[in-house]
Each structure stands twice: as C-alpha cells, then as structure tokens.
Amino acid sequence: MYRCEAIIIRRSDSGEADRVLTILTPSGKQRVIAKGARKIHSRLAGHIELFTHTTLMLAIGRNLHIVTQSSPLDRFEHLRADLERIGAAYYAAELVDRLIAEESENRRAFELLLGALRALNAGAAIDLTLRAYELHLLDAVGYRPQLYECAACGVRLTEATDRFSPAAGGALCPQCAGADRRALPMRLSTFKLLRYMQIQPPEIAGELRVSTATRAEAESLLRAYLRHILERDLRSLAFLDDVRQHPEPSLFVGSTGAQGDDDERD
C-alpha cells in the first residue's frame, strides 16, 4: 500500500458498484479503482468526487491499484455552485487528460491544474484563468506556442506581427505571414495579452482588465491551436459554450457535475 496526493479528473462506472477513477498526481496520470464506491453506504462515495484535491491510500492491484481511503484536501465547493465554473473545471480536467500520457511524470501539470481550480473556486475571471492555464500547460507538455520569435523563420517578432499559425506553432512575422494561407488574424492587443500571460505566473491572469474583443480573440486563437494539436475539439467545450449562451441561475452541481458520471471519452 502507498499514499499519494491526487486530483480526480475523470471517473466512470465499472461492474455493479465500482468506480474507475483517472487521477492526476505529481508523479503522473493513472487509473485506479474504488471498489463498491457506488453503494449507498460506501465510505468512499462522498470523497472521490470529480475535481477533488485529495490524499489517497492505494493498494497495489493486478490491473488497477485499489483506492482504500480518500482524505479530501479541497472540494472546491464554490466552484461547484456555478454552472460556468463547473464547465471550466471539466474543460481544464479534460485538457490535461488529453495532453498528458498515462504514467508520464509532470509535476508542473499537476500544479497548474490545482492552481486553475483554486482560481476558479476563488471567483477569478473564468476565461482569462483558462487562457493562462492553456498557455502554461502547453509549455509544460512541450507545445509552447511561439510568441517571441517567428514560428516559421525564428526572427524576433515586433508589434507589426498580426498573424497566428496553428500549423506552424505560433505567431508569424510580416515576411512569413503569407506562407500559411490558413494563418489567423491577430490584433496587437491580443498578441500582447498572450505574450504577457505566457511569461507571468498564471494566477495573475484572472485579475487582468482586458476588453471583451481581445479576450474573445485570444480564446479563438488558442482553441484553434489546441484543435490542431489534438485533432479535435474537446467535448467539454460544447457544454461550456452552451452555458455561456444560455446562462442559468447559480445552482449546486453535485458530484456528477454537468456531464454525468459516465465520463469515458472517445
């Protein structure tokens, strides 16, 4: 048996009463099983909710290690009381799940997810918190977008830069802008925002004062870049977009969240 710190990023049903959990730890991502967790009187049921930051006691199993105890460190209760914030948490968890290989150690990715959940729970601006999380997570997994040197030729970028190429991996200088016909337009304010957030601690992002248009363009550019890397949009984005378009009054979202327990992804 051993103990580990973890964030629960995905879970699904198994058998008649078990839950399979995907957890992110400072040592990497792994799948574990909580036997009998779906039973009404299970001691684990209330301690293995999605997005919970917890300390787990695990027993080494043949296929999956077995959760024998969970001691939550933070349940992020304020986050769970708002649909848009719970949607943002789903997105943050799904993104790291897609970008991190199982059992691939990445302490920085763990710290970034934990920081994003804390910021969302504390009431920080949702979109800017996610943009900082995306930029720093991409850096942590080796996909840092080029925002200081041209992604095509490597020349130092200036304020004349106005194109972003997901395929090339970042911003293009004016001389290379025509090399990628699918490169996206990028205003100077957006260029400066992305550069600033890339080099600053992610926790400051949620307090920045940025125009709505600049925030929207930054989201669009990073979404296009992630779509190129992942070759698809994440499922959680559809829910997050829907919540924004059809806002609901704040309400408590239980342990199943907005998408339900069956969180296995294609």
TrEMBL record:
One GO cellular component, as annotated: bacterial nucleoid
Signal peptide start and end residues: none
Family matches, as InterPro entries: ARFGAP/RecO (IPR037278), DNA_rep/recomb_RecO_N (IPR022572), NA-bd_OB-fold (IPR012340), RecO (IPR003717), RecO_C (IPR042242)
Keyword entries, A-Z: DNA damage, DNA recombination, DNA repair
Gene3D superfamilies in the record: Nucleic acid-binding proteins, Recombination protein O, C-terminal domain
Domain DNA replication/recombination mediator RecO N-terminal: 2-74
GO biological processes: DNA recombination; double-strand break repair
Family named by the database record: Belongs to the RecO family.
Matching HAMAP family: RecO (MF_00201)
Purpose: Involved in DNA repair and RecF pathway recombination.
Name this protein carries in UniProt: DNA repair protein RecO
Source species of the chain: Roseiflexus castenholzii (strain DSM 13941 / HLO8)
Designated gene of the protein: recO
